[in-house]
Amino acid sequence: MGAKLLDGKKTAEDIREELKDKVRELTLNDCRPHLALINVGDDPASQVYLRAKGAACEKLGIESTLHKFPANVDRARLEDAIIALNEDKKVHGVLLQLPIPSHLPEDQMILAMDAKKDVDGFHPLSAGLLASGTPGFVACTPLGVVTLLHRHGVPINGKHAVIVGRSRIVGRPLANLLSMKRRDLNATVTLCHSGTSNLPGITRQADILVAAIGCAGAITGAMVKPGAAVVDVGMNRVPDPSKKSGYRLTGDVVFDEAAEVASWITPVPGGVGPMTVAMLMSNTVKAAAMQAGLKVEDAYNA
Amino acid sequence: MGAKLLDGKKTAEDIREELKDKVRELTLNDCRPHLALINVGDDPASQVYLRAKGAACEKLGIESTLHKFPANVDRARLEDAIIALNEDKKVHGVLLQLPIPSHLPEDQMILAMDAKKDVDGFHPLSAGLLASGTPGFVACTPLGVVTLLHRHGVPINGKHAVIVGRSRIVGRPLANLLSMKRRDLNATVTLCHSGTSNLPGITRQADILVAAIGCAGAITGAMVKPGAAVVDVGMNRVPDPSKKSGYRLTGDVVFDEAAEVASWITPVPGGVGPMTVAMLMSNTVKAAAMQAGLKVEDAYNA
After folding, report:
1. Do A126 and B131 touch (CB under 8 A)?
2. Which terminus of chain B is more solvent-facing, meaning fewer CB atoms within 10 Å of its CB: N or C?
3. A253 and A191 share a domain?
4. What is the ipTM of this complex?
5. pTM of the model
6. B194 lies within 8 A of chain A by CB
7. Segment B89-130, tens digit of pLDDT
8. Chain A interface disruption, residue of B162, B188, B192, B207, most A CBs within 10 A
């Protein structure tokens, strides 16, 4: 293996240590960061994610509250709860854990949130501010990808970044972020997806290749340009009888092949995953500081 | 010249004819479309644009009102005027002619507008809804580019579109629009800009090449892939003593060279320019229909 690891676990730990100091400072200023987590129904994966987010808050001294609603909650009740959290001055960040049951209009529920508390960065206003070059809250996974690249000294300015996958929470905001006119970004960006013809011909041009497809093994070593930085956002369960759980987690990239060709590569797990939670914490601290009227040191804030 | 012309003048005329019927129908339903144009100061170019927009409204039977403010208007007064137009049920579209004097915060003034009346598509919420795959109002120039391609039968799905220029009113929304997951869009999109290395190497891959740079002659014939569709958004004044005005208008593309190589090409003037005004009219009619609670036939509305 020739590639250096883009170690998300270690980087996320560093960021958490830095955030602890900020949380302490805010708490001394009577503005302890507070993240409200909204959970509708009993989706088992959601329970795991929510526990992880709550635990991450606790470790940093961030207050978190869980607002649980039954799967059959009606729209008005959920909307009222979101509005109440918008108005609650003690709450700085509001996160609606997705997916929500299909009788609820997901888009409308997200629109009901105050974009000033949108620490997930999923509100269309957050997406639009990013696309307009004046980001508010950037979605946690794209923010985590860029932070991981920066902290490992991967050059971005003037490079060609190819993103495979156009989801509104990863691929699209990442395309808008990487192409921002800033000295530490400023990449030429190609957004590929299920409709792309000759994908390998495009990925082989990538100085930075980001896979966010959700399909194990979609990116082989032959699709990677020598010397590239490969970021694997995929997190797929592959059956594995040798594991107790019966499966193992794997990304979208064939790691062993890509690691021979690339100069940098993220492991899965331990790459982008931990960064996403760290960025949620970072956005929550930023939200608290902004709402307290404090100056926010934030690289991605215009 | 081998390329077919992407005739924006003719296409815009066709669209205006179609819109006339819709305006008549809305007017009969007691909902005559009404566009409010806001003008701050005396920028001469702005006066020309505003007159053109007012005249376009008049031809279609759309009501337009001009709201003029002196260059030294204070922020609060302008903001109050915007809010009053937001609340005025007789007004369906609100357009703030840019640029505005530098003592006024442009971003904040646009944010003050109700996104439901944002017929220019410049509000960050409009940009974000587009980036999220559920467009509200799409900015007029990108919408005009795509409409021009569609009406000339240029294939987009599965093609590689290269956009040169990342402005928030052209390049960026066009990138988000062309890459939407829809049968008549679904392009792979590369966004290039001033930071791009080896621009010709990328533009020569483009099945659809969009120049939105603002620099005469930036795209030469050698940068165009044979058989491509070339869309020139540029509108540059080049000194020309043979003209009465002392200048002529030219795009970003060296037309004669590119027309030899491409299969389709826009003239300048007469290409994208007329489409932009036609799309403003289309967005205004759509705004009126939506505010009247009528079903809107709009290809770009999710």
Report:
1. no
2. N
3. yes
4. 0.95
5. 0.95
6. yes
7. 999 999 999 999 999 999 999 999 999 999 999 999 999 999
8. B188
